[in-house]
Every structure is written in structure tokens, then in C-alpha cells.
Amino acid sequence: MQKVFPSFPSADIPVLNAKKTLENKNYYEIYSKGSHAGYCFFTTDLVPDEGVGYGGEMKILVGVDLGGKITGIEVIQHSETSGYVSDSSLEKFTGRFTGKTKNDKLEAGQDIDGITGATLTTNAIANAVRKGLVVLAEQTGGFSDASGGPPARFATHFAPHTGTMTTEFATTTATRFSPRPVINLLLLAAFLCLAFYGFFVRGDKHYGRVRNAVIISGIIIPGFYLNIPFSIINVLNVMTQRFTGFSFETMHYWVFWAVIFITLLLLGRFYCGWLCPFGFLEEILNLRDTAGHSGAGKNMVDIKYLLLWIAMVVSLVHNNPNLANYEPFSVVFGFVGGPPVILIALAALVMSVFFSRYFCRYFCPVGALLGICSRVSLWKLKVTGSCTRCEKCVKICPVGAVGGIEKAPPETKTQPAKQQVIAHVVAEQSTDPSVKSAEQSAGTSSKIYIKTIECIQCNKCINACPAGAIRRKTWIKL
Fold first, then answer.
1. What is the pLDDT of residues 401-431, one digit of tens each?
2. Count of H helices and E strands in the chain?
3. Extents of the domains making up the chain
4. Domain boundaries 381-406+414-474, CATH class
């Protein structure tokens, strides 16, 4: 209580009277030295539908003087990701509300500086405080504004078709339209259109140009500008019934997550290949292992599934999704995070220079979860019978999802060594795929395959295949 009324001596601010108000919602009268000095309220009481951040509902205590000025704010309870929202950053942010009134915008990024990388959290707090002030003024009969003006007025409306009467708080300040949510949606829509266009592009040269454009715009728009990670914490928040608030300001989050869910059902790990900003950054940094087939990698791909299992068990047992927060997104794109996450992010970026998509392939819990779910996706990449086994797809796959199973060449003993050498040289020098196919079919029984749970749907194998043997097929028989 002292934090929301810092100018009052602690002995003078007992809560004397919890008044029962409309719809059983409570606010509290505050007295100092025997005189009525202001009000305080919990946003969960006055505006229960507001104050829902990235990790679910937040309980916020707000102090207001008789003139309608905010005297202080304290977030009593929250489940926001510690990597994005620290206690110090939260205290600094709420302190910026002091002295504000209902006539101010009270919008993060407008008249109040937000917390870098925590847009959902800051918007949720700002909305809850702003709307809470309106309801408080309505339920107390209004208070004078900061300039000593008259109390707020109310307008009563009767709805004949329902027989109900409603009271609306009338403010002299018109509602201000903020273009930021619209800009966010337009930029996200532009990026998504470019990503889907790149997904359907065919041809090495054109594909490469479009792919580079998607990578750069993906790092800038959903990465640094919108800062909308799809984290394992999102999944754990849903499992522990901590839901992100739905509003026009957060619409771009919901659109992005809806696209991820729909593409997962249809195509599998589309997010990993075409939407993930951190994956894009790893691709840009990679200078050495562009094919994704380093010797160490083949024995490490299952680590991310173990980490996923550990993160989910620990978080659910302790009912705290933040315990699973080891992903580097917040550090790289939000510039926030504790020392352990910073070290993980730096290690991931350095290793990405030498190993293709290092964190994605071996440690990313989101990639592991999406990979497991991709088993039931509608369309999967398959290698058809026209494959010439040139293994260009194997060499170009950035995550090692395409591989070959080789067996001992049949009939080698009956074929003279000289003829084997001649046939191999002719096949290697020939530009006719059928010649190579015949030579390889006669000399080996290798089979090219695509591991669905590791495939990120980047389509590099499709564009590299000279025979057009890699296609998407559905398990539904029409």
C-alpha cells in the first residue's frame, strides 16, 4: 500500500472501508489523518477482462487521489516471462504512470515508455489502468480532474428491446485513435504474404532471391520490430490456463499464432522454415556448414526432444512456465534476459557460424514440439520413384532432414572390375539423368528419404532436384 501512496505516512493509510459497488466489484477508500484522501483498486476487481499479459492475468493495485491523479501502481501478481519482464523493469515502467489522469492516453509507446521486448505485458497493464480509472470514476460518482474541473458526468441509456438500463461514463476527452495496431497488422500481413510467395516459388535463381528477401524481412518485422516470438512458454501458458489477452492492440500476436497453427496442421514445420526470426539469423550467420551435415550433428538431433520433455515436466509440476525459459529470442531481439539466457544466446550465435541452424537443429524446444506434431500434418515431402539418387537434396538440406540408406552393391562379384570402372566414369560424365540412374540402380540399392519431424519445409531440396522427384503428398486418400 505504501508503494501506491508514497506521499502518505504508512500509519495513515489503513484501508478503512471496502465499499460494495456495481456488479459486486470493490474499490477502497483511503484516509490520511482522518480525512478522505483518495481511492485504490485492484484491476482484477474493477476490470477483470483486462490486465491479461503474455503469461496470463496480472493483479495490479492502483492508487488514485481525489483529483483523479494516479499516485502509484504496483503489480501484485503476474506470470510474465522473467527473461522479458524483470522486477526492476516492471517497477520502472509502472512508475511512469504517476501523476497521469484519465485524460491522458495511458498507452505504452505513446505517452508512456514501454518495456523493450514486452509489448503484450506493457499494453495489458496500460489498458487495465486506463479502463480501471474510468470504472472507478463511474462507481464513485466522479472526481475532479487535475485542473480542478468538475466531476465526471454520466449518461443513462434505456434499451427498449432488452428492457435494460446502462450508465456510461462521459469524458470530455475524445477517444484517441492509435495507428500503431494497424501498422503492426499491415507489416505482419506484408511479411506473411512474402513468406507464402517464397514457399511456392520454384527455380533456383528466383527462389534464392525471394528466400533472401523473406529472411531479411523476417529478422526485421517479426523479430526486432514486432518482437513476437513463438516460444515453448506460449504452449505451457495454455496448458496451465494462462491466456494472453485478446484486444485490437494484440491482434498481430493472435494472427501470427493462428498462421503457425494452421500451417502446422497443413504442412508441418512451416514456422521453422519460413517464419522464425532466430532461424533466419542463424542462416545469415552460417558460413561453413551450409549443407547442414556436420559429423557431430547426426548424433545430437535428439537432444531437443529430451530438453522439451524436461522443460514441460518441470514447468507443469511447479505450475510455472517461466522455468522453461532458455530460448535466446528475448536476448537477441528484445535485448533483455538473465545471464544464463545471454550465455545460451551468444553460444548459439557463435556455433551457427560453423554449423547450419545450430540451435534449431539440436536444442530448440519449439522445433521439437512442432516436429512431433508434424507427423499428422496433411502434406509431407516424399521422394518419388523418379529419383536418380544424385543426392543433391541430401547435400543442400540445412537441417539434415534428407538422407540416404546405402546397402552393399549387388552383383559386384560377377561384373568385371574394368567394366565397373568404365560404367561409373561414363555415368559421372554424362548429363543424362537416366544414365546415372541406370548406373546407380545397377551398382547400389540406396534410397533417399526425408525425415518429416526434422524437415522445416524450406523447399531447398525441391528446387535442387534435377529430376523433380521430391513432391508433397497427402496421407488422405481421395
1. 998 654 444 444 444 544 444 444 444 555 5
2. 18, 13
3. 10-160, 181-374, 381-406+414-474
4. alpha beta
